[in-house]
Amino acid sequence: MENSITIRTAREEDAEELLKIYEPYVRETAVTFEYKVPEVEEFTARIRKTLCRYPYLVAMQGEDIVGYTYASPFHERKAYDWAVEVSVYVKRDKRKLGIGRKLYQALESELKKMNIVNVNACIAYPASEDRYLTDDSVRFHERMGYQMVGRFHKCGYKFHRWYDMVWMEKHIGEHLENQPEVVAFCSVRHDR
Length: 192
Description:
Layout: E1 5-9, H1 15-28, H2 40-53, E2 56-61, E3 64-73, E4 83-90, H3 99-113, E5 118-125, H4 136-143, E6 147-158, E7 161-171, H5 185-188
Parallel strand pairs: 4-5
Antiparallel strand pairs: 1-2, 2-3, 3-4, 5-7, 6-7
């Protein structure tokens, strides 16, 4: 399966297809703490805003988009420029086929070109697994080389249940005394 997947930069016109992937996560899971599925226009604006500075990539299987990943600011203050928050979503019937791994590998490759050195994932985490949330995302990130760095207890409320949130991190570059400046994705991007 993984070999039949290609990765390319997202386009604004992908918003509707990406929303089809994201919608079940909003409606049926606590993977995202978003309550309402965004409108296509809002999702398009999110893609546009991300691509101004960071990678937003899609996984293609033939002509079908089967997953996506993107980076966003870890924090807005200048000293945080070398760190990003990353997210990945895969069509629910295409999970555990290596698509998420391929997306993250491509994302990390692009982030390295930008001089990013820290990638961080904010993950909804159940005190005990239920029908809305498992610890699959934490296990996925562990397999991708992330380490647990923090846990906030009962900080997200969805489906009349309280969920924890964890932070995981991975270093993808060297931390130097004279760190090269981060360059925007649009400066290093090459559409695939």
